[in-house]
Amino acid sequence: MKHANGPNRMKSDVLPTRASMATGQLALDRIDYDERATMRAWESFLSDEPTSARDPVHVRSLIHDSWYRSANGGINAQGIEAPLSSDRDEIEYLTRANAELLSAARRSFASLGKLLDGTGAMLVLADSDGVLIDAIGDKKTLHDGMDIHLAIGGKWNEGAVGTNGIGTALWTGEPTFVHAAEHFCAGIKSWTCAGAPIRDPLDGKIIGVVDLSGYSPIFRPHNTALVAATARQIEKALAEQQQEQRTRLLEAFISSAPSYRRKDGLVIVDHRGRAIFCNNVPNGDTTEMMDGPMEPGRGRWLMNLPASGSDTDLSNALPPHLRSCHITPLKFDGDLRGAALVFPSVPAVSSMTVMRREGDKHLRAAAAMIVGESEKLLAAVDIASRVAGSNGVTSLLIEGETGVGKELFARLVHAGSRRTENDPFIAMNCGAITKELFGSELFGHVSGAFTGASRDGKPGIFELANGGVLSLDEIGELPLEIQPFLLRVLEERVVHRIGDSRGRPVDVRLVASTNRDLKQEVAVGRFRSDLYYRIGAVSIHVPALRERGDDVLLLIEHFNRQIAKLAGNDPLEFSNEALDALLAYRWPGNVRELKNLVERLYILARGGTIELQDLPGEISAGDRGSMAMHGDHPAAMLEAPVCTFEDAERQAIKNALAAESGNLSKVALRLGISRPTLYRKLGQYGIRRGFL
Q1: Which of 269, 398, 593, 611 is deepest in the core (most CB within 10 A)?
Q2: Pair (154, 278) in one structural domain
Q3: Angle (CA) 272 275 277, round 5°
Q4: How many helices (H) and strands (E) would you count in the chain?
């Protein structure tokens, strides 16, 4: 039904299509807007089944389609506000995650903000999920916007609050206005808003929305054009930022990769793992990148860059189709900002080089399984890695207490020794074999060699390990009468099955491990000196956990996250007192004992936080003894000078930074707070990470 012109009747404009935006023209078609008719259409829509495909009269199809999505998405049509997150940590995380977008919008927002005061309008910036991250404009409107949560932290996508300028612009991917009664929720029908999506210049993905909002009288047909122009300005600023970053990454690559040859393939990725520069990219595994018009693959996401930026973590982050490349971290301003992927030219790569690269890949993966940063542990890993890469070392002795992880070092040697995917790794615990069966297990036997022998004969573990690595755990348990036969096999590289005169050549690298002092065993006559010097030409001492300092914290975090992932739960948190007790404990069972403890805590803990009383008595009691030994007594504490809570908190953070050498992950774990909270506290107290 037609209505005469009046206060509830106005002319407005529909949105430009993407095609028209591409040509820089705003194709505006005139439409009628009738407040009462739109309200009646909304009420009628809500009374009918939302699956109805009938477009209401006087309602744009864009709005009706959005109403339909809102109703089917379960949005409360009588809602009065959007969801709002007021958690400071979440807001801080949003700010950091959208730092580039905020920086690019700063100039436009600063110039427009001065012009909006007194106009009844506000300009807001939302991220790709419709969450507001900045807002400027008329002070009264900004204040009133809080009533509907049109403020930083408010979530305005369609899935949260139904039809609105921000959420509908995100959905359509085009500049969009939603006026008054066109909103889906009753509580925001007195507002008008026009939003325009912001696209990343590199890959074209929507990364945010700029929106002009206010009470309905501020509506003007050109509001949509204004936000569309602002979005283009922000995209231009983003492009300038990305070009500057691209230049700095190329400069960082030139200074850090002097051995790069022009005929090699090169891909530079930014901090998000997207290709920003490609040159001479080879065919084969990387052909999927070669689909761009100027630079093959530019803008394509290739990998997730790890926060640490270590060579091992970077290599592990590479997807399978890029494992043939060499990766170099690119840093400036003290942070990891990207990486260089170099593909050596194919003619220069020999088959031996390819095999070595495969070995390096397996070696890096095996080394990553050994968690720790202590000097003693890293020295042991270095020796094992060098042994793995040497063809001249055929046997290795690994010494260390029970539970320190000696088998991980044996597997590290195997990983670095592999020449094919099928090279075997055979392990045997000498302490689990009866004295009578040692010969048969080691060397095998032929049919009828002894009572109970297999009818068809049986190969020993030396034959099974041919071409690979044989790990003999607890070699100190090997019977004295068997030791000469083992020495003979190691010297001659030939094995004789029991009952067989025929020798079988074997190519086996032996990794022997023990928790005994073999020198002492030799001195008392329980181990042959010639065998000891044969297997111990190169030896590795794996340090006990109590000798590894803060590796305890790293292992707790590692097992905590590993077990939580398997269980589908959130990781446990540990109080400061619990962590201090765990650090002070002597760990007679070493890493195995620590892992078992974390598994036990997952089962028995009463809540998500582990307190001192949740730990076993031998650990918690040890902590109290340590406190008493250091004079940490209540009476002594009362004599300490009184300070404010802020001073105590500041000092606690400084102490933790000093104890953890500035490692923020460990500092947060020690303090029992999240990393975002730690960042906020550092800023609050003006503490710089590098103050030490």
Answers
A1: 398
A2: no
A3: 130
A4: 26, 22
Phi, psi dihedrals of residue 108, rounded to the nearest 5°: -65, -45
Kindly state whether residues 380 and 520 are assigned to the same domain: yes
Amino acid at 320: P
Burial 626-664 (b: 16+ CB within 10 A, else e): eeeeeeeeeeeeeeeeeeeeeeeebeebeebbebbeebb
Decide if 209 is inside a domain.
yes
- 391 and 536 housed in the same domain: yes
62 closest CA partner among 217, 208, 244, 184 = 184
**Which is nearest to 397 in space by CA: 527, 562, 287?**
527
CA 351 to chain centre: 34
CATH code, domain with 337:
3.30.450
In angstroms, how far apart are the furthest CA atoms of the chain? 113
Q: Is residue 530 part of a domain?
A: yes
Q: Print the SS3 string covering 81-97.
A: CCCECCCHHHHHHHHHH
Residues 487 and 386 reside in one and the same domain = yes
Name the burial class of residue 162, with classes exposed (0-12), middle (13-18) and buried (19+) by CB atoms within 10 angstroms of its CB: buried
Q: What is the token pair recorded at 3?
A: 């209505």
Torsions phi, psi of 26, nearest 5? -100, 105
> Between helices 165-172 and 61-72, what is the axis angle to 10°?
100
Total number of domains in the chain: 5
Contact 311/241 with Cβ under 8 angstroms?
Answer: no
| Residue 163 near residue 63, CB atoms below 8 Å | yes
Q: What is the DSSP letter of 325?
A: S
Residue of 252, 223, 202, 239 lying closest to 112 (CA atoms): 223
What would the pLDDT profile of 285-311 be if each residue is shown by its tens digit? 344 443 333 345 566 777 777 776 666
Q: List pLDDT tens digits, range 71-127.
A: 999 999 999 999 998 888 888 889 988 999 999 999 999 988 888 989 999 999 999
CB atoms within 10 A of CB 335: 9
558 C-beta neighbours (distance < 10 Å), count: 18
For CA atoms 386, 391, 397, 400, give the dihedral sign: positive
Rounded to two decimals, what is the model's pTM?
0.46
Domain boundary among 519, 541, 563: 541
How far the first Cα of the chain sits from its last, in Å, is: 76
Range of the domain at 205: 88-242
With a cut of 50, list the residues of the chain below it in pLDDT. Answer: 1-30, 51-53, 283-295, 346-358, 623-642, 690-692
CA distances in angstroms from 300 to 141, 215, 290, 348, 440, listed in the order given: 41, 42, 10, 28, 58
**In terms of domains, do 435 and 511 share one?**
yes
Spatial separation of the C-alpha atoms in residues 378 and 633, rounded to whole Å: 38
The helix (run of H) or strand (run of E) holding residue 473 is strand 469-473
Clarify whether residues 181 and 224 are in a common domain. Answer: yes
